[in-house]
Amino acid sequence: MGVLQIVVVIVILLLLVKPVGTYLYHVFSNEPNRTDRWFARTEKGIYSLIGLKKRGGMSWKKYAISFVLTNIVLVAFSYIFLRLQKGLPLNPSGIGNMEETLTFNTVISFMTNTNLQHYSGETGVSYFSQMAVMTMLMFTSAASGFSVAVAFVRGITGQKSVGNFFEDFVKAHIRIFIPLAVLVTLIMVGLHVPQTLKPTLAVTTLDGQTQQIAIGPIASLESIKHLGTNGGGFFGANSAHPFENPSPLTNVLEILSMWMLPASLPYMYGLFAKNKRQGWMIFSAMMTLFVLFLGLNYYSETQGNPAINAMGIDSSQGSMEGKEVRFGIAQSALFTTVTTAATTGTVNNMHDTQTPLGSITPLTLMMLNNVFGGKGVGLVNMLMYAILGVFLCGLMVGRTPEFLGRKIEAREMKLIAIAILIHPLIILVPTAGAFLTNLGNGSISNPGFHGMTQVLYEYTSAAANNGSGFEGLADNTSFWNITTGVVMMLGRYVSIIAMLAVAGSMIKKKPVPETIGTFRTDNGLFTGILIGTVLIIGALTFLPVIVLGPIAEYLTLR
Amino acid sequence: MMDLYMVVALAVLFSLLYGFMHFCADVVED
C-alpha cells in the first residue's frame, strides 16, 4: 500500500511534466503565444511603471548584475522590516523586533531561496513580516532562480542572447508563480488550511487550562512555500503542523507543488535545444537518482530503529519516531526525498529522528544538489555535470568535447570547476571549523556520530539552499546565524554567477556541424555517463564525511 | 551597533560577489 501511494504520486508528476514544460517554454521563449492575451497587459503596466521600455537582450554580466542588485534591494527592505516589526502594523500578538544576527541570517535565508529558520514562526515574526518579508521573498527568490535557469538554457542552446533579467523576473511572477499560488491557496483553504488575520486564539482545554493556539495567513504562505521550493514554514513544526498540512491529500498537493516545476524544466530545456530527447535525458538521470535515494529512505524507515527493535517493541509500522501518524512511512519518505531533491526544505517529519541509513537520503540529495533541484538551479547544476561528463569523455577518446554543437574549452571548464568545488568547500570547511570551537560543539544535543551529522546537515542544508534541519541542533546563536548566513550567500550566488559566465561564453561560439564522430548527448549511454559522473564526484567529495556521520551511527546501533 | 556590523557584513559579501563576477568575466575573455 505504501509503495502504491508513492507510485501514484510519481505517475501524476509524469503526466504534468510535458504540459507544464511546454507552458514554461512558451512563457520564456519570448515568441507570441496564447498566454499573451491573459498576461501581456499586466506586464506592460509593470514595464512602464519600472521604466523598462526597451527589453533588449543583456550580456551575461549585465544579467548577473541586474539579478544581484535586485536581490540587494529586497534584502535591504526585508532587514528594515524585521528589525522594526514591533512597531509596524498587523502585529496583533505584539511580537518584538527580531535580533540583529537572526535578522542577518533570516534575510539571507529567504533571499537565497533557502528558508533556513533559526526562529519559530508563531512567536518570532508578526503577520506583517510573514507577508511583506517571508512571503514576498518566497516569490522573488523563486522568480530569480527561474530567470537564471532560463538565461543559462538560452546561452547553451545558442539563442540570440541570455535574455533580459527584468523581463524574465516579471514574467516568472505574472505568468507562473502568482497564478499558481492563487490556485493552490484556494485549494488549501478548501482543505481546511487557515487563512486569517485574527490574533492568536485563547482556548480552554478539557482540564480547564488556557492554551494559546496560533493562527494566521497560513494558506497563502503555504502555497508559494512549496511552488517556489522555499520551504519556510509558518510554524516551527513546518508541514508536520496540522494547520499547514492537515491531511494526506494536502500532503500530496504540497509534494506535487514543490516537485512539478523543477521536474518540468528539463522538458523546457529540450524545447529550447530543439531536441526533446536532450530534455528527457536530463529528466531520466534526475529520476533515476531520485528513485534510488527514495528507495533507500523508504526501506530504512520501514525496517524501524534497530535499537528499539532489539528491545522487543513491535516495529511493524516502521520507525515512526518524529513522524505524523496521518502520513505514515510512505508519505513521510516521499516528502523527505522530494523536499531535499527539489531543495525545498519543508518537512512533514523530523529528519533528526530518521534512522541513520534513512538520513543518508536527505543528506546526499543536498550534497549532489542536482536531482531536480531548487527553482532553476537544479537544472543548471545537472547541465553543469552534463558538460563535465562530455569533457571527461572527450579526454578519454582524444577529441575536443562538444555540447549542443558548441566546443567546450578551458575557460568553460575553469568556471564549471569553481561551481562544482565551491559546494563541498562551503560544507566541509565550516563543519570542521564548528567542531574546533565550543560555539559549534555546544549546540549539539546528541553527542557522538549523530552530533556529527547534526552539524554536517546544518551546513549542507545552508549550502544547498535547502533550509531543512536536524532540529536537535540549538542553532539560534550568533555563531550559527552568521556562519550559515555566509554559507547560504556563497552557495547561492557563486555557482549562479559562474554558470551565467559559462552561458555568456557559450553563446558567442559558432555551432560546429554534427558529424558521424560527434559524441551524442541525447541517448541512454550518455544518461548513464551523467549519472556516473554525478555519483563519482559526489562520492569523492562527500563519502568520507557520510561514513563519519550516519554510517558510523548505523554500525553502533546494529 | 550590532546592526552596523550586520549591514557591513552584507556589504562585504555582496562586494566579494561583485569581484568574483569580474574574475569570471576575465576567465570568459581569456
TrEMBL record, chain A:
Record's keyword terms, sorted: Cell membrane, Ion transport, Membrane, Potassium, Potassium transport, Transmembrane, Transmembrane helix, Transport
Domain of life: Bacteria
Main location: membrane
TM helices/strands, residue ranges: 6-28, 63-82, 131-153, 174-193, 252-272, 279-299, 376-395, 415-436, 479-503, 524-552
One annotated GO molecular function: P-type potassium transmembrane transporter activity
Keyword Transmembrane: yes
Pfam families: KdpA
Subcellular location: Cell membrane
Keyword GTP-binding: no
Function: Part of the high-affinity ATP-driven potassium transport (or Kdp) system, which catalyzes the hydrolysis of ATP coupled with the electrogenic transport of potassium into the cytoplasm. This subunit binds the extracellular potassium ions and delivers the ions to the membrane domain of KdpB through an intramembrane tunnel.
PANTHER family found in the cross-reference section: POTASSIUM-TRANSPORTING ATPASE A CHAIN, POTASSIUM-TRANSPORTING ATPASE POTASSIUM-BINDING SUBUNIT
Protein name: Potassium-transporting ATPase potassium-binding subunit
